[in-house]
Amino acid sequence: MYARRVSAPDTRPGYVPSADDAALVEALRAGDESAFMQLIDDYGPQMLRVAMLYTPTRAVAEDVVAETWLAILDGLDRFEGRSSLKTWIFRILVNRARTRGVRERRSVPFSSLGDGEERSVEPDRFLPPGDRSAGHWAAAPARWSDLPEERLLAGETVAAAHAAIEELPPAQRTVITLRDVEGWDANEVCDLLGISEGNQRVLLHRARAKVRRALERHLQGAA
Amino acid sequence: MSRAEISCAEVVELVTDYLEGALDAHTRSRVEAHLAACDGCTGYLDQMRQTIVIAGRVEPDRLPPPLRDGLRRAFQGWRGRA
Which of B8, B43, B12 is nearest to A206 (CA)? Predict the structure, then answer.
């Protein structure tokens, strides 16, 4: 009934409340269960993933998500549309997840970006120092846009990407999921997670590098 | 056009900033000059773009059914109280 909405980042000056959000809030207030279930399906999985960054276990994360939805319903009358509904929902979620995480003494996942240098590509893919073309590719990576589309976008290929994403460290997994799987823009992700644009880009860079490598193995059988 | 200014290994680490539009103009020019003359990095950039496209095809998770059902019941309870 309600199409998946792409919300505008509400950090811009002059944010205009969305008519879709207002209609949805009205439907919820009127007790429209299908509107609520649509909202659950749109945001719930991401809410669970984000909560898991802050909570020690998945079970606690599920509690946090459930509590958040109750807080949202109880707080509907106070939603004034000054931010998008999505932003409002996720802010409540993150606050609850953080509180719960602190209570359960879970370390904050974005306090450090982990060990300093990560290489996107194995150093032996480049010609070594002393070579006439030191630092350049030993063998040029193949263009995947030259592959048949049914191979590139096959279920197995997408599954390989999904598996690689699931293997990522939590912060990298969250950022690439929100940005590339869910289509959030950079501002929304930074705002939600309370990280700088630079930090967000580092996490995205590392995540994408690993997924690319996994896809390369899948598509070409090479490391 | 010379690609001696910036190495492929450096370009690889700049790829995300490049795609995000976060490079300063000078660095962006150097990267673009390098790409124009380097099949390897052009191939790598293409792979990165396709990686993003493929990631976009990953189906979002579903909520576990017990949680989803519990939320539905919570809504019904809330509605009944309102």
Answer: B12
Q: Look up residue B17 and give its two tokens.
A: 């900033």
Collapsing DSSP states into helix, strand and coil, what is residue B48? Answer: helix
Measured from the Cβ of residue A1, the count of other Cβ atoms closer than 10 Å reads 9
Q: What are phi and psi of B24, to 5 degrees?
A: -70, 160
Q: Higher confidence at residue A212 or residue A130?
A: A212
CA-wise closest residue to A195 among A213, A211, A179? A179
Decide if A69 and B17 are in contact by the 8 Å CB cutoff: no
pLDDT for position B82: 65
Residue A50 with chain B: CB contacts under 8 Å: none
**Stretch A175-181: mean pLDDT:** 94
Ordered alpha helix ranges (H), B1-82: 8-20, 25-37, 39-55, 65-81
Instruction: Please state the ipTM of this predicted complex.
Output: 0.87
